[in-house]
Design goal:
Helix 1 runs parallel beside helix 2. By secondary structure, the chain is α+β, with helices and mostly antiparallel strands. The longest helix is centred in the middle third of the chain and has 16 residues. It has a six-stranded mixed β-sheet, covered by helices on one side. It has four helices and six strands, in the order E-H-E-H-H-H-E-E-E-E.
Length: 141
């Protein structure tokens, strides 16, 4: 099995797309969470970076629909969700933030971690969409 590496996407390029949206983690925060995963032997082309940015723009424009697609009401009952800080599963869904946005170069799928430090305290929802934005899975950890 070939080793995988990551390549960070320029924070200013990410900022140009997401602006000051409260639904996305800042591209200037650490650890950095906007990147492409690729095989160690692969070189990242400008085309791959453009695909990443197009996918990020799509997520930005369709964030509510995509998060609703990935969210399951039973996530609200997860032990790591502090229900005293969030009144309902519907509100939880509306308050989730994209903590990471990752393009997997091998198949152009998109991985995201959704969370909110106000009520999830170190837990997150792991999501994966296909290259055509069909949800492959989502689960809470």
């Amino acid at each position: 099995m070939e080793m995988m590496e990551t390549m960070d996407i320029n924070a200013y390029m990410v900022k140009d797309i997401i602006g000051d949206s409260q639904r996305f983690n800042s591209p200037f925060s650490k650890p950095y969470s906007y990147y492409i995963v690729h095989k160690k032997s692969e070189t990242i082309s400008n085309i791959s970076v453009q695909i990443y940015l197009e996918k990020l723009k799509y997520m930005y424009q369709n964030i509510d629909i995509l998060i609703q697609q990935a969210f399951k009401p039973e996530f609200y009952d997860f032990y790591g969700v502090h229900q005293n800080f969030i009144p309902s599963s519907e509100e939880m869904c509306h308050q989730l933030v994209i903590e990471s946005f990752v393009l997997y170069l091998n198949d152009y799928s998109i991985g995201c971690y959704l969370s909110n430090s106000q009520f999830m305290f170190g837990h997150f929802i792991d999501c994966l969409w296909s290259d055509s934005w069909n949800l492959i899975y989502s689960w809470i950890c």
